[in-house]
Amino acid sequence: MDGHHGPEAPAPLRVILVDDDALVRQIVRDVLQRAGIVVIAEAGTGREAVELSVYYQPDVVVMDALMPGMDGVAAMREILAARPAAKVLMLSSSADDELAVLCLRLGACGYLTKSLNVESLPRAIRAARDGEAIVPRRLAGRLIEEVRRTPEDGAGLRPVRSPLTAREWEVLDLLCRGMSTDDIADTLVVSPETVRSHVKSVLRKLGVRSRRDAIDAAGRLRSGMFDEVPGLAP
């Protein structure tokens, strides 16, 4: 006997549930646990969601988009600013396409409404963990429209492969719109010093020396010319 017991079982998928309705959390938690998904923490507010997500670093955060106080969208932005690779799946009572597109544009890996069959949620969460985009079929057509309406320069798009964080892309998008440091600070509700810090990081990561060069590099990233940007292998 060599003591070999075969390959180790894969680690269980770890999830944080965020919803201000405790009953919703209980229903979803029970379904996920029956499917072998571990709910490592629950939050009833956006602020709790940010703190728990940064601390536990779950595979997926299942987040209610509409909550009192800090809503799910604001919480998601803070989570992605702290952990750019985090996966946030929005689960909302609203079927508003505008809200869904906003969430996806800001970095959500998917958007589902609470009208879905809750038993299908574990499969959606596993797909989100594996990098798939999770959207209802009715929303697919709307997303295609959004892509078609995107300006030719691609402003607002985020390339799949990029050295920049979600927040750095927000700053770069505003630079592309010709905004000054103070304008960007007002738009993002941060200090001018914070904006300068983000700009400095953008320049460093893109290997350029000026804001104008960063804007040009953004265009190349969006058009898929990765080999022209230092630090990005094709």
Topology of this protein?
Elements: E1 14-18, H1 22-34, E2 38-43, H2 46-56, E3 60-63, H3 72-82, E4 88-92, H4 97-105, E5 110-113, H5 121-129, H6 137-149, H7 166-176, H8 181-188, H9 192-206, H10 211-222
Parallel strand pairs: 1-2, 1-3, 3-4, 4-5
Helix pairs in contact: 2-3, 7-9, 7-10, 8-9, 9-10
Tell me the β content: 5-15%
Q: Roughly how many Å is the radius of gyration?
A: 20 Å
| Uncertain residue ranges | 225-234
Q: Give me the CATH architecture of the largest domain, please.
A: 3-Layer(aba) Sandwich
Distance between the termini: 47 Å
Total domain count: 2
Q: Label the overall shape.
A: elongated
CATH class of the largest domain: Alpha Beta
Number of helical regions? 10
Widest beta sheet: strand line-up: 2-1-3-4-5
Q: Approximately how much helix is present in the residues? A: 40-55%
Q: What sequence of helices (H) and strands (E) makes up the elements?
A: EHEHEHEHEHHHHHH
Described by strand count, sense and barrel closure, the largest sheet is: 5 strands, parallel
Number of strands: 5
| CATH topology category name of the largest domain | Rossmann fold
Please state the structural category. Answer: alpha/beta
Mean pLDDT, as a whole number? Answer: 82
Could you describe the 3D structure shown?
The structure is a single chain. This protein has 234 residues and is of the alpha/beta class. The protein folds into two domains: 133 residues, Rossmann fold (3-Layer(aba) Sandwich); 63 residues, Winged helix-like DNA-binding domain superfamily/Winged helix DNA-binding domain (Arc Repressor Mutant, subunit A), CATH 1.10.10. 48% of the residues lie in helices and 10% in strands. The protein contains ten helices and five strands, in the order βαβαβαβαβαααααα. Helix 7 packs across helix 10 and helix 9 crosses helix 10. It is elongated, with a radius of gyration of 20 Å.
